[in-house]
Design a protein that fits this description.
Two copies of one chain form a homodimer. Chain A has eight helices and four strands; from the N terminus they run H-E-H-H-E-E-H-E-H-H-H-H. By secondary structure, chain A is mostly helical. A three-stranded antiparallel β-sheet of chain A has the order 1-3-2. In chain A, strand 2 and strand 3 form a beta hairpin. In chain A, 34% of the residues are buried. Chain B binds a DNA duplex through helix 2 and helix 3.
DNA sequence: TGAAGATATATCGGAGCGATATATACTGCA
DNA sequence: TGCAGTATATATCGCTCCGATATATCTTCA
């Protein structure tokens, strides 16, 4: 079975209980978005494909007169999800405009280069706080893994913020030798 | 001036000396790729646009009979680059299949969930080593910023590897209470 | 009653990325 | 000398992804 990672996000999101495309999107935006996003343009077509492949099953679940389809994982879908979880992860990407700017910061005066690090730090501090506010919700669930991942995110952002602070200090400190570890 | 970040990668890469599209691509693959990639399909069209906008200047620089164009930054290009560097960074993305798998690892037995963390750790250790091998080259340049960024990458991967190790231990350690900070 | 916001599905355009096509030039070695 | 393999150089295609938006119905509450 050849599925893209987005398909597995969906399988994972419906693996505990059936959900609509809209609910999946909202859940993704609230949880995995920080390391794996998904848009409507991916979710709805993918739900159709997964349904045709027999990995999920669409169930009519209207709310009032507005029609609504929730998708439940099938036994085939479950084993597909588990097979994927057992493979070593293969996709790792990062896009960080801050690091890019820092990389080219040699064309700026030192003080302006330090400003890049200040912006980066501020952003990471804010992110860590935002994630911290999500902890109670994750703590309330019985599945411990979302909480582990969330705490990893918090720790990562705190590490990053700290690194920015240290690099800023190093940059502004009265230059002795040019560089030393 | 409305430019995408890739355009600024190019401006940055030609800001010290003129380079061909091929050289820019090779440089990106050797340096910024870990936090900002660029493909031929972006670079060559973008060089044309930047040239038309007067931010870079194409110069014929054939090697033997094979034609070749190197691009030099113009004064307009320089101030455009600096303006961009002075804006706070706005793009931050991460795609980490490992964290995604960990997020859903609750459907697996504990030992198999720990295996995800082992794969992730192994990958990060390898990455840190790869980056470490690039240090001498970065140290040889007089611009300190690529070195700072490189060392940040090393430290990040080491932090990540360490986190994976700690989480694996926590996962396998004789479960007392379900969770505690 | 009616405006605002939430739920629900669908689709479009643009950007990014990997892969590949096409040529020429250099390098090593049989 | 021949030639195979690799490096240089430019160009392009198809796919995925993402943000934005369109459309419609439902709920809330002033």
């Amino acid at each position: 079975m050849e599925l893209n990672p987005t398909a597995y996000v969906i399988l994972g999101m419906v693996s505990r209980e059936p959900r609509s495309g809209y609910e999946i999107k909202a859940l993704v935006d609230d949880t995995t978005r920080f390391f794996w996003a998904a848009s409507y343009g991916q979710i709805y077509p993918e739900l159709k494909r997964l349904s045709e492949a027999g990995l999920v099953e669409g169930i009519d679940a209207p709310r009032g007169d507005r029609k609504r389809t929730v998708y439940a994982i099938t036994t085939d879908g479950e084993s597909e999800l588990k097979d994927w979880l057992r493979q070593p992860p293969s996709t790792y990407e990062m896009r960080e405009e801050g690091l890019l700017k820092l990389f080219f910061a040699g064309v700026l005066p030192r003080e302006e280069a330090a400003e890049i690090l200040r912006s980066m730090r501020e952003h990471r501090v804010g992110l860590a706080e935002r994630l911290q506010k999500m902890e109670p919700k994750a703590l309330a669930k019985e599945d411990p893994f979302p909480l582990i991942v969330l705490r990893g995110g918090i720790e990562f952002n705190e590490w990053f913020a700290d690194w920015c602070e240290r690099m800023e200090r190093q940059l502004l400190e009265p230059a002795r030798e040019k560089r030393s570890s």
